[in-house]
Specification:
four-stranded mixed beta sheet, 2 domains, alpha/beta, about 5% strand, about 280 residues
């Protein structure tokens, strides 16, 4: 499996959608782009899946898809990302997952400004990557590293969306960005890793998140992860990064990546000294 990007289908879609009315174009996009993914989301209709992809960053049907197609062809994205995927899979003894590539919606301010022109979502059976084709290859490798790390964590922990704790959600983000730092360098870290100091994060952890860390169900975590109201933006992500960073600082080379995937979030918290 690995990288999936049907450029022939993308070219056909880009040509045929040009003369369509907006509503027709949206339906056509749902039927063209979502069908290859639908088996991974059997509980959702094709149009529900299309809405979800649009919210995560799928480029609008009448926007510039040709630029993405050209970039993927000329920058060797598929070849280089497939090599990187296979390297990570071997290193982490990870699961075989299809990784679908899509152009990102350049009008989505949240994704463009807050997430550095890229976004990814990972499930137990597939990974979806959305990115700006003007990004360097190293940035797309960072995105793949982050999301495939999530895939490995899901594989080793065997959590589902209902049982996963808030602490696990934070640790997952910290593990993924720590992997980016180790394999691609600190220059490829997500912007949210530098939003706050460790001391600020420790304060918010002690005041607001530590007592909530066992809340189960991913849908209940957004407020704590993304911030809002009394919490600063992306605070859960940033705290998770510092927890995992301190875990690695204190344990050194005692744990291989595969061993870390198998550790519970509470064990990582304890070894990081954030739980004391």
């Amino acid at each position: 499996m690995g990288l999936q990007c049907d450029l022939v289908a993308f070219v056909k879609f880009s040509k045929e959608v040009r003369d369509m009315a907006w509503e027709e174009a949206m339906i056509f996009q749902a039927e063209t782009m979502c069908k290859p993914l639908h088996k991974h989301f059997s509980s959702a209709s094709l149009y529900e899946l299309h809405l979800y992809l649009s919210q995560q960053g799928l480029r609008k049907p009448k926007a510039d898809w040709d630029r993405f197609i050209k970039a993927v062809r000329t920058k060797s994205y598929l070849k280089e990302l497939q090599k990187h995927y296979l390297k990570l899979k071997a290193l982490w003894n990870g699961p075989e997952l299809p990784v679908f590539l899509f152009p990102i919606d350049m009008d989505n301010y949240r994704l463009i400004e807050n997430l550095n022109h890229k976004n990814g979502v990972t499930f137990r059976t597939c990974i979806l990557l959305f990115f700006d084709e003007s990004l360097p290859l190293s940035a797309t490798k960072a995105l793949l590293t982050h999301e495939y790390n999530h895939g490995c964590r899901l594989f080793y922990q065997d959590n589902d969306e209902e049982s996963v704790t808030l602490l696990e959600s934070m640790v997952m983000e910290g593990l993924a960005e720590s992997a980016v730092r180790r394999h691609l360098g600190k220059e490829e870290l997500a912007p949210w890793t530098n939003l706050y100091t460790k001391e600020q994060c420790q304060r918010w952890w002690q005041v607001s998140l530590a007592e909530k860390r066992q809340i189960q169900g991913r849908r209940y975590h957004d407020h704590f992860m993304y911030g809002g109201h009394s919490l600063p933006k992306m605070v859960g992500y940033c705290i998770g990064y510092y927890i995992v960073r301190d875990f690695y600082k204190l344990t050194g080379s005692s744990y291989k990546d595969v061993d870390v995937f198998a550790l519970s979030p509470d064990e990582i918290l304890t070894l990081s000294k954030w739980g004391s």
